[in-house]
C-alpha cells in the first residue's frame, strides 16, 4: 500500500512548518456548519483532521489513480454521436473513489456536505493527485467552480447545487474561452438574452473547455450587446441538457484523461450568477485566481513525479563503472531539479496561505454584521493589503511553478536518455502533461504582465520587508539574508529605471523583473525553512548563492534599456516565412 502524502517529506515538513493553527482558527470562525456530523472542537483538532484527509488523498492517489494513469493516457475519452462524452471507465472509477472518501467538496462549508478545508490543504491535495495523474487533477481540481457558486450565487442555487458537488454526483466546467476569445476574455461573444418569460438563454460556441462535458457549467456570456468590453459580460450557470452539446473533443499533446471540449449552446436555458455585468470583472477573476494556484499545484505534482523517476534511474543506471548519479553533470541536474521543486513549492504554498488569510478575512467582514468598529477598520485595511500581495503572488506562483515543471520534466527525460524518450517509462508522459501548465488559465506571458504590476508598484518591497527584519542568530543565515537585502536593492534600482522609460518597456523587461523578485521572495521563504533542520539550511544556501548571480545579470539587462525586440523586430525576426 503506497501513500503519496506520507512518502513526501517536503509536503509533511511544510504542513508542520506553516502555522496551520492560525489558518484553522480563521477557517472555523463563524463557519457555516449546519447540522454536520463532525465539527472540530478547536484548532488542533482541525489540523489533525487536515492531516487525516491528506493521508486519505495520498493513499487513493498511490493505490487507485496512479495505476490507472497510463491506460487512461493511451485510450482517452469518447465523444458520442448525440454530443455527449463518455469518460474513460477508469476516470469514472477515480471519481467514484474520491467521492466515496468525501473528497469532492474539499473547501465547501460543512452545511453543504463539504470538508471546510483551507485552500492551502486543498493545494497540497491537488499536488498529490497531480503526481498520480495530472489529467485527473483537471476534474478533481475544478472545485473552484463550487467555490464560485458558494461565493456569488443565490441561496436557492447554492442549496440546490453545492450538496451535489460535495457528494460527487456532479462535476463542473469553467466555460470561458471562445474561438476568437482565448486569453482576451473581454472579446467574448457568446450571447445571453432573456426570452419573453424572463428566462435567460445562451447562444454561441465555446472552445478549449476543460471538462466541458461536466454536469454544471459556469458560462461567461455577453448579456449587454451594446457594451463591447468586459463590462458587458455576466456569469451564468446551466446544467447539461439537450440544448448544449459537445461538438468536438480536442486531440491534445497531453493530459489525455481530461476531456477538452468545443461546446455549442442553442438557446440553452441558464440562470444568472450574482449581478449583471460583473461576470468577468468580479466573478471570473476570482475564479481564475483560484484556478491559477491550482495549476501551480498541478505543476508541482508533475514535477515531483518526474523527479522521482529521474532520481531512481540515476541511482540504478550503471555506466562507466558506476551509477550515473556520480557523473558531475547528472548529479548537478538531479540536485537542481529537487531544489527547483522545493523552491516552487515554497512559493505556491505561501501563496495559498495568503489566499486563505484574504478569503477568510473577507468572509468575516461580509458575514458578521456586529463586528466592533475597531476590528472592522483593521480588517478592511488588512483586506486591502492582502489583495495587493495576492495580486502579485498568485500570477508569480502559477508562472514560476509551471515553468519549473516543464524544465524538470524535460530534464527527467535527459537523465533517462534514450529510455526517457520511449513509452517504456512515464517520463515522456510527464513532459507532455507538463507542457500545458504554462498555457492554460493564462499563459506565462500573461502571468508576468499581472505580476510585474505588483513588483513595480511597491507590493514586492513591502512584502519582503518583514523577512528582511528577521534576525536568525545564525551567521550563515544572517549573511544570506543580508545578500538578499542587497539583491532587493538591485531589483529596486532596475524598477526605478523602468519608470523612466515608456510603459512598453515595463512589459518588455517584465520577465526579468518578476524572475528577480521571485528569487528574493523564495530565498527568504527558504531561509525561514532553514531554521528547522540542517538539510533545509543547505537547500537555502545553494538556492540563494546559485540564483543571485542570475538576478544580477537580469537586472543588468533591464538597466541596459535595450528595446531591440520591438524597435528592430522586422530585422531580427526576419520576413514572415511561407508555410508549406
Automatic annotation (TrEMBL):
Signal sequence region: none
Keyword hit for Mitochondrion: no
Names of required cofactors: FAD
Entry keywords, A to Z: FAD, Flavoprotein, Oxidoreductase
Record-listed E.C. numbers: 1.3.8.7
Tagged with keyword Oxidoreductase: yes
Source organism, top-level taxon: Bacteria
Matching Pfam families: Acyl-CoA_dh_1 (PF00441), Acyl-CoA_dh_M (PF02770), Acyl-CoA_dh_N (PF02771), AcylCoA_dehyd_C (PF12186)
Example GO molecular function: flavin adenine dinucleotide binding
Domain Acyl-CoA oxidase/dehydrogenase middle: 173-267
Top EC class of this enzyme: oxidoreductase
Residue span, Acyl-CoA dehydrogenase C-terminal domain: 477-550
Span of domain Acyl-CoA dehydrogenase/oxidase N-terminal: 56-169
PANTHER family: ACYL-COA DEHYDROGENASE, BROAD-SPECIFICITY LINEAR ACYL-COA DEHYDROGENASE FADE5
Family classification: Belongs to the acyl-CoA dehydrogenase family.
Protein's name according to its UniProt entry: Acyl-CoA dehydrogenase
